[in-house]
């Protein structure tokens, strides 16, 4: 049975306390300058200082939110949905600004090093993002309207550690980035088909 929860479980800061607010059905996070999450495949030092509010992930779930960035955007500024087991096993689905100045759906999956993938451009001020957990796997989806979901990727984290899931803002190259997450839906089951738009 699919159940929509009106309120989220208790949120906590993942590793660095940041500027955040939970107000009604919205979560707002502000990332300070120079904050990111990455374990660069080219070997640059790991970065895990971006603020993230998370909760313990159930064995099966779907978490979605509409995301917008309200500050002036610079390269790699993003609001993101995230999942985290430890510093070497995590992933994020981002509404991110590209080096060319275009907002995009971008995903990264880290199993020791980060696999970084650009998906498609977003011309609107908002996009809906979704993380699904089903069995041993995770899926990422994005949507323009929050109704029809486009498949982004399917993957596993190579760890048996418990996973936290939630919301993140990052500002790797800018002064700050404020991301607002609203129209948040948490369901206790995954879609029956990960690729049919449901």
């Amino acid at each position: 049975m699919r159940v929509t929860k009106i309120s989220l479980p208790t949120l906590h800061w993942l590793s660095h306390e940041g500027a955040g607010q939970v107000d009604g059905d919205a979560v707002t996070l502000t990332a300070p300058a120079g904050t990111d999450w990455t374990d660069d495949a080219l070997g640059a030092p790991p970065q895990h200082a971006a603020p993230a509010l998370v909760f313990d992930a159930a064995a099966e779930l779907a978490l979605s939110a509409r995301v917008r960035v309200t500050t002036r955007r610079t390269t790699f500024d993003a609001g993101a949905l995230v999942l985290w087991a430890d510093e070497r096993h995590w992933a994020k689905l981002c509404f991110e600004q590209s080096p060319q100045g275009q907002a995009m759906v971008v995903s990264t999956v880290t199993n020791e090093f980060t696999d970084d993938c650009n998906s498609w451009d977003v011309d609107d001020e908002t996009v809906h993002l979704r993380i699904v957990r089903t069995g041993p796997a995770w899926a990422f989806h994005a949507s323009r309207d929050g109704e029809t979901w486009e498949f982004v990727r399917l993957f596993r984290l190579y760890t048996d550690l418990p996973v936290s899931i939630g919301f993140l803002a990052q500002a790797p190259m800018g002064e700050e980035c404020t991301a607002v997450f609203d129209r948040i839906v948490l369901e206790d089951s995954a879609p029956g088909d990960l690729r049919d738009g449901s």
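The two ends are 16 Å apart (CA to CA). Confidence is low (pLDDT under 50) at residues 1-6.
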